[in-house]
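Subject: Interface between my chains keeps coming out wrong

I've been trying for a while to get a sensible model of this assembly. When I model each chain on its own everything looks fine, but I need the whole thing in one frame so I can look at the contacts. Pasting all components below, labels as-is. Any help appreciated, I'm running out of ideas.
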Amino acid sequence: MNTRNYKKDISDQGSVKGQTNQNFGYSQPQQFQDGISRIQEEMMDPRNIQPDSMFLNFSGVLECGECEDEESLRIEYAVKYGGDDWTYLKTSNNADDAEPSGISQLSTSRNLHSRNIVWNFPFECNFQTKNIFGWPQVVVRLSGPDFMGRSVAKGYGSVHVPTQPGYHERVIRIFKPLPISGFTGFLGYLLGNTAELKNFDKVISSGEGREVTRVKSVGYVKVKFHVTLVNFDKFGYL
Amino acid sequence: MSMPYQQTGNQIDYQEIKQTKADLKAEVHFIGQIVGGLDFQTDDGLFCELAIDCGDGWDLLQPGNNKGIQTQTSYANPGQLFSWGHPFDLHFSVSNISGWPKALLKVWRLDSSNKIDACSYGTALFPRSAGYHQITCETWTPTGENLDLEVRKPNEDLATNTDQFSKFDRSLDWRFQALSFYMENPPRLTTLAPLTTDKGDFARRKILNSISNGKVIIEVEVVMKNFKRLSFSGQ
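Reply #2:
Try treating it as a single job with all components included. I did that and got this:
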């Protein structure tokens, strides 16, 4: 139905000389009991409204993991996303909620036979976007006490948030940077300065500048995701 | 079918949204990471180089430069995954479906004297349906060339053409294999043309001899835009 012409008709009606209340072929709005015309009701139907951005809401749990021969570990996560088109919607006005991240408890494996460490650490994020490029990824860092009790990094890894709505399980492969030489490694072991990544979230999520780093695989972390997408079908994706 | 209205502020203001041509173009996003390598049976460090190859109708919108990916160097125990964990995010605009993107992989070896050398090659085809996929790409290492396949004309009988026996098959020659083993430099491809059907030189792949090598694991999520609207399959 052609509502554009309807609006013009209303505004033009008064200016035409001698033709007040003339019906130019359009029917008068039908009055319903609650007082909304059919056209207004159609305009308020969310299926007819073209939104201006898409929303991604996901929650998940960093469930459990293993890292070679480690008994006690904590897991830290950060959600990295493409900067320009994506907006992280904060859930509160706290300053420490500015970037989605978190640190879990320090957990220990149950007995000597199993190296499985359970964190069961939940997280949830809301994003607003107009573009798929820069889809968020969860970057994790495992850390734990060394032989002196100092907290050192034991591994890093990353995984993309699933793009399909629903429940998904993913496995993050964890790797640890290697020291430059045997002597540096030994000294670092004594002093608690083991090879670590500064700004691990930027380095791992972008992939730039990692060509010359050397790493060793050390384990895995299991993650569970629940994803809800809003307005993606209106933009042509889904 | 009703026209779309834009909701501006609290008022419902009905303006017609003009849909531009770009809104109806098919676009594909490949979001994922090169997870790692498996079964390479080496003590050296390995890293992977990935180049994207696609047809002419595919336009890489983001990221701006298509210079390829080089992962970190990983070491692993026997049977363990060489973990590279390199994320990538590709945004293509599609005007012609022909030439679906493929990843041309080259695995490099970093040995104990800090020297790098080519280890193996592979071609991984990106999936054609939306959602999460885990691609396992088997790789191969070239061991030599079989040049007499180029010289011999098809349908020609070997018995009548005795010239062919004078050319030996270089890759099966024990001297060539011993040299490449002890010098630790297996033959390498000079171009990536034999890996992809899009470039002209793919036909020369028939002269290669190769040996099997490990596998590269890639996880990728495919997001498609307007595929259903344009009646392309996969979304």
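Reply #3:
Confirming on my end. Chain A is about 15% helix and 40% strand.
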